[in-house]
Automatic annotation (TrEMBL):
Its main location: membrane. It is found in: Endomembrane system. GO terms for cellular component: endomembrane system. The lineage of its organism: unclassified sequences, metagenomes, ecological metagenomes. InterPro entries: Metal_cation-efflux_comp, Phopholipid_MeTrfase. This is Unannotated protein. Pfam families: PEMT. Coiled coil: none annotated.
Length: 150
């Protein structure tokens, strides 16, 4: 299996988990704190994802295989985390889990987090091979969750 096929399979699995999280039924017993927390997480996730999309510009691709003519982006949100789109996606989906009140969804969220972790590790092997500065960037900037203090 070549890298593009593997990338397509990972993207398919990612979207399958996202769909499962979205269509899982909501509980009728949701607490207001859960709704507020969920909305907050979704809002933060949308902002972080948007900043990630915007920062990548023409280097953006759904497939983890880097664009042939893409550039290594290390500024903006990418100076805080290497994979802000994954960070945003995890925040959005955790917000959905919390606000739905269906705690069984946490298993789907854990599966998504594991898939994204696998995907980013594989992606980083290719990024390290493509960009000579990636190893230094990786040593300096956390993968998905920013450090609280610099």
């Amino acid at each position: 299996m070549d890298d593009l096929q593997k990338g397509r399979i990972l993207v398919f699995l990612q979207f399958a988990l996202l769909i499962a999280l979205a269509i899982f039924p909501d509980s009728t017993q949701v607490q207001s704190w859960a709704t507020i927390t969920g909305i907050f997480l979704i809002g933060i996730g949308v902002i972080v994802m948007f900043m990630g999309f915007r920062g990548l510009g023409k280097s953006l691709t759904a497939n983890p295989v880097p664009n042939q003519d893409g550039k290594l982006v290390t500024t903006g949100i990418y100076s805080r985390v290497r994979h802000p789109i994954y960070t945003g996606l995890l925040a959005i989906t955790l917000g959905l889990v919390v606000s739905s009140g269906v705690w069984g969804q946490i298993l789907l969220w854990i599966a998504l987090a594991m898939l994204l972790t696998y995907k980013l590790r594989w992606e980083e092997v290719m990024l390290t091979a493509k960009y000579k500065d990636y190893a230094e960037y990786k040593a300096r900037v956390p993968a998905m969750f920013p450090r609280l203090a610099r």
